[in-house]
Amino acid sequence: MKFGQVDHPELIDFTIPPDHPDTAVVLSQYKGGGVPNVYVGCAKWNRQDLKNFYPRGTKDELEYYATQFNSIELNATFYRIFPAEQYQKWYDKTPESFKFFPKMTNAVSHLRRLNDQVYGIVDEYLQVTSLLKEKLGTIFLQMHNNFNPKNWDRVVRFVEYWPKEFPLALEFRHTDWFTDETVSQELYHLLQENNMANVLVDTAGRRDLMHMRLTNNEAFVRYVGANHETDYPRLDDWVTRLTAWKELGLENIHFFVHQNLELASPLLSAYFIEKLNPALGCGLAIPKTTISPQERLF
């Protein structure tokens, strides 16, 4: 994942900004207090990207991946809508507790950019995606970098059309969605009123995307490491922030680890889970890697 990549991550201020004041207001509506539902995963499971993760002789990468992680951010569905039998295979290869968090096809987000022609595609996408049944987590829609607030009416129509039985998170990347206060408040309230998550993207070159505004009882975080030693304290800071949100009422944490070079994603995930378990009282399995979480890759 090259988005937000920089040449010198050591020069970036990775401090997590203070919460948007309305985040506490949103979370106060929920009881919280117990152990949250936590899903941590990578973006891909293929051997080519996750080098040195699979033991020699592994026959099926997804089957093994699902023994180490409880979820996957399913980026493959961004590029095409797979046939129904493929979703059934994914379902059959994974344990009962596993969840998929698939990305909406780019035919909706990038090619047609939420215009009036996307709704048939959305229906087709959801028809096959629903075959994941109880293993289907939150679907997320990632808009193109140049999709700006001039397209506000398209966003409203899409949100109103979306079948509410499917959890949805939205990721906007154009700067104006967050730097223009009037625009950002309208967006946040639209998502909040429709119980949709506001994706948080933590990447080196786009700190403006760290808006720290939750719009429902879900923290959907896409963390992009820099293949640099700064990746570790950044994850420590996320453990601290998620713990604070839990105390405010947060019940659902969906955290996906990316890297510019994805081979480090399982290692960073293991490090993160090892820190997160005692902080939140959850018992996620720590993925096995060729390097222990206590060792440093960078």
From TrEMBL:
Signal peptide: none annotated. Gene3D superfamilies: Protein of unknown function UPF0759. InterPro entries: DUF72, UPF0759_sf. SUPFAM superfamilies: TM1631-like. It comes from the Bacteria. This is DUF72 domain-containing protein. It comes from Flagellimonas olearia.
